[in-house]
Amino acid sequence: MIMRQSSGDQVHRPEAYVDPLAITLLIGATLLGSVPFGFVLAKHFLKIDLQEMGSGNIGATNAMRAGGAKFGAAILMLDAAKGLAAPLLARFFGFDEAIVAGCGLAAVIGHCYTPFLRFRGGKGVATSLGVILALAPALGAVGIGAYALTLILTKTSALGSLAGTGAAVALAWFLPFYDERLALRLVLSLICALIVWRHRSNLYALRQAKGDKSL
């Protein structure tokens, strides 16, 4: 199993070999993603429980509703930093893209299902942005642009999040530039599916609102 690179050469191990450092990094990425910055900082600075405010989400959008634009921006950057740091750390240790991308996915899962809040985490958008920027900065830029455009047109952050993630995944699969990066494509697809799942209540609410307007 080829898992790490050293001085430009791949390190070959027996087929059953699993690098302990890789396992450590994957667990560490999950724990890093699990740090609920929005919840902790809202408790400390705003003296409120984000899970009892607005949508009940601990992410940047609900944090902005509760504490204003600057507070929301701070949570956005911290959550994105988790997603950025996890794959970059794996890359620093010389692992191949399967482990690097896997650490990014682990961070997003940790954020969405943090054990520190009884597995009630955020929706994973900001952390996913950090992961995409770490793995493929150009796709991250496209995602940001798609999010901004959709938000302007619809005034709905959830739709912007889905559009941004979807645009990044679509380009990863359709651009020949990424043909040799299967791990990237698979991980981004899994992240997109997770974000859609985490936004299912938003999509249901939008559907109900659209139905009400058609009556």
Quick gist of this model?
This protein has ten helices and two strands, in the order E-E-H-H-H-H-H-H-H-H-H-H. It is mostly helical and 215 residues long.
Binned strand content: under 5%
Strands of the widest sheet, in order across it, are 1-2
Tally of extended strands? Answer: 2
Class derived from helix and strand content: mainly alpha
What is the percent of helical residues? over 70%
Dominant shape: globular
Number of domains: 1
Output mean pLDDT. Answer: 90
Rg estimate, integer Å = 18 Å
Please trace the helix and strand order, writing H or E for each element: EEHHHHHHHHHH
| Main sheet specs | 2 strands, antiparallel
> Are there runs of 5+ residues with pLDDT below 50, and where?
none
What is the distance, rounded to the nearest whole angstrom, between the alpha carbons of the first and last residues?
A: 59 Å
| Number of helical regions | 10
